[in-house]
Every structure is written in C-alpha cells, then in structure tokens.
Design brief:
The protein is built from 17 helices and 23 strands. It is of the alpha/beta class. Strands 1-5-2-4-3-6 form a six-stranded mixed β-barrel. A four-stranded mixed β-sheet has the order 10-11-7-13. The N terminus and C terminus are likely disordered. A hairpin with a 5-residue loop joins strand 15 and strand 16. The longest helix is centred in the middle third of the chain and has 16 residues. 27% of the residues lie in helices and 20% in strands. Keywords: Heme, Iron, Metal-binding. One of its GO terms (molecular function) is heme binding. One of its GO terms (cellular component) is membrane. It comes from Chlamydomonas eustigma.
C-alpha cells in the first residue's frame, strides 16, 4: 500500500452526534475478491438484501453495524455465494476488517441520512502508485509490478480527475478513504484528504461547519496533489530519515490484511512491493486552488504550548480578555498569546461553538472541569465559568453520607453502587463502557469494599481519573466495619487479602480533593462544595 502521511482510523473520526440508521443487521462473511478491479463496487448476493430491494435496485450502500465514516458501494450479483461479501484489499483496509474468519455485522446505509446538502462541492486527494504483493500471480491482479510500463509514470491530473469522477460518480466519499483507480495500464490510489459540501465562501460564513463525507456528483471538483504537495514523486533514499519514514510506514499500514499481502520496499520509498525498480510518479497538469486572501474575520490564537489556532472572531466574542483582537479592524490577521494549553483550548472552542449555535455544551469528565475553569478565568469567558460552577455544584448536591444498608437497598433495586475505600460510587451509566464490567462487577463487587479488586484489575492509575464522576458520598463511619472486603466470606470464615498500602495511599492522595471529610460520628467536616469555592470568585 502506498506510503501516506499517518492518519487516525477512519471509523467515526469526524462524526459528531452520529446516529446509526435503524436498518436490520446483516451478517456477511468477508472474502477476497479475485481478480481485483480497481474502483469497482463490492459484490454481494441479492438474497441477503431481499427485504430492502425492489425491481429498480441493483446497487446498495453498506456501513459497519456500529457506524463508520466509510460507506461501501455494493453491486448485487447472483454468482456470489449467499452470506458473503467480496471485497478487494483496499476496501478491507478502508473498513478495517479482514477476509475470512467470523461474519461481520453490517447495516444498509440510506443516502437520506447524509442530510442536506449531501453533494460534494469539492474533494482533495493525494495520488500514489499501488503495487500488488509478490506472491500473487500477475494474471490475477491488475496491481502487479508488470502493470507499470516504465520507471517513470507520468499522470495528467486533469485526465485522472475525469476518470475518477466517472468511476466513483454517485458514491459516498469519506475523508481518509483510499480509492484505487486504473490509469493507462497502471493502478493508482487516491487518499481523500478533504471533502466539502459547501463552497469556500459559504464555509467562511458558517460556524460549526464539519464536513467529512458526501456524494460525488457531476459538478464536484477534484483537486489532486502528490506527496506533501509536490509535483513529483520519487523513491530515492535519504539515510538521515529512513528510520522515521519506516516507522511512519508501519503505523500507516498496521492493518493486518495489508501487512500480509503487501511487502515494504526500499526504505523511504513511496512504493510497497518487491525491492528494486520502484517507479517514479510524475503528476502534471495539476488543477490548484486559487490563493485566497486570509479574511480579517479570523484571529490567530497561540496557546501556552505554542500551538497556533486560527479562530473566527465571532466565535471569540464572549471572551472578554480577547476583546482587542476581536475588534481589530486592521488589514492583517491579529494575533494573541494565551496562557492556556492546546488541549484545554480545543475544548474551549467546542464550548464556544455550542454556545454560539445555542446547543448544549459537551459533558466533559469532571477531572477536566478544573482546567476549563482556569481557562475561563484567563479568557474572561463567563458562560464557561457558569458551566463549570453548575457541573461541580450539581455533583456537590448529589453527594451525601450513606449508610451501608442504603447501598444494599439501592443495588437490590437494580442499581450499581460500589464501595471503594469507603467511597460510594454510582457506576450504572458507565458499566457498558467498561471491558468485561457488565459481568465481572455485578458478580464480584456489589455490597463489598472492592478496593482489592480495583487494584487487581487496573494496572495503571489512569482509572482514578473518572472516580470523581461517579462519586456520590461516603459510608458512615459506624457502618464501615460492617462492609465485607471483596473476596471475604464471613460465614465460611474466609478472610480476604486486603489492598496494598501503596495503592490505598495513591488512591487517597488522588481523591482527597473531592471526598467528604467526616468526623467520628459521621458529621461532615468539609463538603464537596468547599472544593468548588475557588470558582465562586471567578
């Protein structure tokens, strides 16, 4: 597979509030499609889709059952065995699935779910050469080394764009998707780097614009480039960077089906395949975007860790501390440096976007709220300050001293209250997200102090981060001796191994900032609300 810049997984990478269409689940066994036909749809038997078809349906769209950015175009063919889905290696790579093994779950994707607008205005893509594996017979693959006519492959970008639009017309195209295409006896692959359903002028006016896929239409414009925006692709070796390039290559091709079927060529090469004789791609007649003057409706914000964010001024308007740059009427883009790290500022921008659009803000984990509160103070962002006060105040109102019998009663009613070093945690909403938690926690950790189990099952202290989200109080001091330890059987006289002192020390150091401080008789010496007092003065 060609050497692309490393990117994250495709699945749901850019899909805020994505809703999976309520269509029936379809179980299909993925099999390799031989021979490969670059750009052709996947193949399936119409029997598997009889419930969703009428006489006018020859093609359908599939997505992974849990949702995926990449939408698969499928052609129905009676020669395909029922219950099977024939995919080439690139399609398998796009969906991050393997041929063989157990059946995969899919759903039919309805184009109307894309919303409006859905037709792509423009698409950007990186062009690479694609080569088949050395162990495949050339007669069964259009991607073999013999398909390259010479060591220099010249590609006319405008001709390739026309061929691409003809091949993929009417299909759903997603950012980071790889799309192979035959070109003058060679096989190329294009990685989609941008997909816009609005034009540039419209995008400048819209706040909260997120476009990551759409339908390729006759009016869509394709902008092609080679690696790093250069016009020429070379496969020469630069020893100084060979190690880093190889590392990036391994990361980009970590998907097993690609690693098994394609072999890495020379270090620092853009080609994969048998070593030696890797051709050079020369991309000519490139259609480039016209250079647009950066609008004065943008301000450059640099964070404390030197990350630069170009941000629309209208988004920053609630930030009183940034009033000067927001009201700057000069011909150049104003800049400002803020004492907020990039990760926190990224969350601030999400909050500002929701605030401007009148949407509810994200419900971040409580361990992030303190940093957001500090950022709100730095930026003079009162709505964010109020958000932080509300989040922490709501937590404080839900915290109380709990009797052990109250915990047992809550669990008998279907609740999931855990006791951890005398803290009471309500984990019912979180349980489905915990690996194995739906079975292990109810069977082992209810109505006991689960500190030992918690220590055993969590190798790192990262698990401490979310305790504050689940904290609803403390076991009354009079009841603590009544709480069995996890693994203890008092009736049978079986004692439990206690948690280690190091674990308890770390746990108490981390949680002391939000735990209730109780007296000997259960009176509250310091409430959770006191830990929020620093916010009152913001």
């Amino acid at each position: 597979m060609p050497h692309f810049k490393p990117t994250g997984p495709i699945s749901l990478q850019g899909a805020p509030e994505y809703q999976v269409a309520e269509t029936p689940l379809i179980s299909l066994k993925v099999q390799d499609r031989q021979p490969n036909h670059p750009g052709s749809p996947a193949l399936a038997n119409p029997e598997d889709f009889a419930w969703s078809l009428n006489d006018n349906h020859n093609n359908i769209f599939l997505q992974l059952a849990n949702g995926s950015d990449c939408i698969l175009s499928v052609r129905l063919d009676l020669e395909v065995p029922p219950g099977c889905l024939l995919l080439d290696e690139v399609q398998q790579f796009n969906l991050h699935i393997l041929s063989g093994g157990e059946a995969q779950k899919f759903r039919v994707f309805i184009l109307e779910d894309l919303g409006e607008p859905s037709d792509l205005v423009d698409v950007e893509g990186e062009v690479r050469l694609l080569r088949a594996s050395s162990h495949q017979g050339a007669e069964h693959s259009t991607l073999s080394q013999t398909s390259f006519n010479s060591h220099v492959v010249e590609v006319d970008a405008r001709e390739l764009s026309s061929a691409f639009l003809r091949t993929y017309f009417g299909r759903v195209i997603a950012v980071n998707e790889l799309l192979p295409i035959a070109y003058k006896g060679n096989t190329l692959v294009i990685r989609i780097t941008s997909a816009n359903v609005l034009g540039e002028n419209e995008r400048e006016e819209v706040v909260g614009y997120h476009s990551y896929r759409g339908v390729l239409s006759p009016s869509s414009t394709l902008y092609l480039s080679s690696r790093e925006g250069s016009h020429h692709e070379t496969s020469s070796t630069h020893n100084s960077s060979a190690g880093s390039d190889t590392s990036r290559l391994d990361q980009a091709l970590s998907h097993l089906c690609i690693n098994e079927s394609l072999q890495v060529g020379e270090p620092n090469s853009d080609q994969l395949g048998p070593k030696g004789g890797a051709p050079i791609l020369v991309l000519t007649n490139i259609l480039g975007r016209q250079h647009r003057h950066t609008g004065t409706d943008v301000a450059n914000v640099t964070t404390s860790d030197e990350e630069l964010f170009p941000v629309k001024k209208k988004l920053l308007r609630p930030c009183i501390a940034l009033t000067k740059v927001v009201r700057d009427a000069g011909d150049t883009v104003p800049s400002v440096h803020i004492n907020v790290d990039c990760l926190t500022f990224d969350r601030v921008l999400l909050f500002l976007e929701a605030h401007l659009l009148g949407k509810p803000p994200p419900q971040w984990s409580l361990h992030l709220v303190d940093d957001l509160a500090k950022a709100a103070e730095v930026l003079g962002l009162r709505p964010l300050t109020e958000y932080c006060q509300t989040r922490l105040g709501a937590v404080a109102r839900g915290v109380a001293v709990r009797r052990y019998q109250d915990v047992v009663a809550a669990n008998s009613r279907g609740g999931l209250w855990l006791i951890l070093d005398s803290m009471v945690l309500d984990v019912k909403a979180w349980l489905p997200e915990h690996p194995g938690g739906a079975s292990i926690i109810p069977s082992q950790s209810l109505n006991v102090d689960c500190a030992r189990f918690f220590e055993m099952y969590h190798a790192s202290r990262e698990s401490f981060l979310y305790l504050r989200d689940f904290y609803i109080g403390e076991i009354h001091p009079d009841d603590r001796s009544s709480v069995p330890q996890g693994g203890e059987d008092r009736a049978a006289g079986i004692a439990a191994e206690p948690p280690s002192s190091d674990f308890l020390q770390q746990l108490r150091e981390y949680t002391q900032g939000f735990r209730l401080k109780l007296g000997l008789n259960g009176e509250v010496l310091q409430s959770v609300a006191a830990t929020c007092s620093s916010l009152k003065n913001l």
